[in-house]
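@here heads up, posting the sequence + SMILES for the flavin mononucleotide run so it's all in one place. Ping me if the SMILES looks off, I pulled it from an old spreadsheet.
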Amino acid sequence: MKTELSTRLGVEHAIFGFTPFPAVAAAITRAGGFGVLGAVRYAAGEDLARDLDWMQEHTDGKPYGLDVVMPAKKVEGVSEADIEAMIPQEHRAFVAETLAKHGVPELAEGEASGWRITGWLEQVARSQLDVAFDYPVKLLANALGSPPADVVARAHDRGILVAALAGSARHALHHKNAGLDVVVAQGYEAGGHTGEIASMVLTPEVVEAVDPLPVLAAGGIGSGEQIAAGLALGAQGVWLGSIWLTTEEAELHSAALTAKLLAAGSGDTVRSRALTGKPARQLRTAWTDAWDDPQGPGPLPMPLQGLLVAEAVSRIQKYEVEPLLGTPVGQIVGRMTSTRSVRAVFDDLTRGFERAIDRVNRIAGRD
Ligand SMILES: Cc1cc2nc3c(=O)[nH]c(=O)nc-3n(C[C@H](O)[C@H](O)[C@H](O)COP(=O)(O)O)c2cc1C
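bot reply: prediction finished. Complex structure tokens:
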């Protein structure tokens, strides 16, 4: 499955895989795709360096990328403590109440919250880039807007392609004007932060808006047939996130969460601000219901909500409190019905793609 973009990056298949787990990213790259490691959970540079060292050793010299979350709106000169101080007491009480209602135990004395999204702070994302630029990363992607001009210039100086996610043609055009090389058109169905336009409508709009820049179709892709659809809409490749969550290599560290994902249908997700303050598609749980309940205080804007709920999410994950346990995941969760290796998922995608092309030709009477 070669396209101009996959050839430019030196990969066999134009299948890009976003994942927060180094073992998954490396396995996608080894299978012939392009693994992209999500950096948002890395607070300290050393941890990212350790995992990039590991990626280097486990990718057989094949290319991989890094994804950071640098919000377009800057939060400058404000520390994490300053932001914490802006959180209203009412919201803190609501978190405590919701946890108590479900009997969620406290963390042990002095135990740090493991779930902490600090990567959205520009200074943290920049420190991640300082680390990443010492590695042969081939593509740098940004989740929430075009990266600042100096970051784009630093990447280009090193021969790194710069990509960004877009949920609308307007966002995509902004990326093109900011000098980016690749746009990921991410539809409403996708796991994680997502806009309101479905992939079927979004992909061709973005392709047209940024022409001749290459576009990757993202959101709701979990089969070779869906990959063929993305290419038919004008994309030069596809970008998949959810499908890897139930692979053997994924380090979810929660049998209960994996079981929930495997059991969920395509209607069991919700686009909610419960986790980060921005609409993000995730499993629908008692936690998202509580935040989306009009009787409650409702979520705070990003970045406040992420800080507010960090410890609560850690506690829910650690003690696997089933009704509240969730994760970002897209509607494609309905297809995730067994735990398989990344290689098995990947081979299924490439085989399915060939089948889909044959089928289209057959249906259209071309063979
Ligand atoms: C668990 C999870 C975490 C995600 N975190 C990020 C992130 O940190 N940065 C980012 O650019 N996209 C993130 N995404 C979105 C993916 O990059 C991708 O666009 C999306 O998963 C594609 O749609 P799909 O979920 O239907 O495959 C995340 C997705 C999931 C499922």
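MO: The chain is about 40% helix and 15% strand.
MO: One more: The mean pLDDT is 94.
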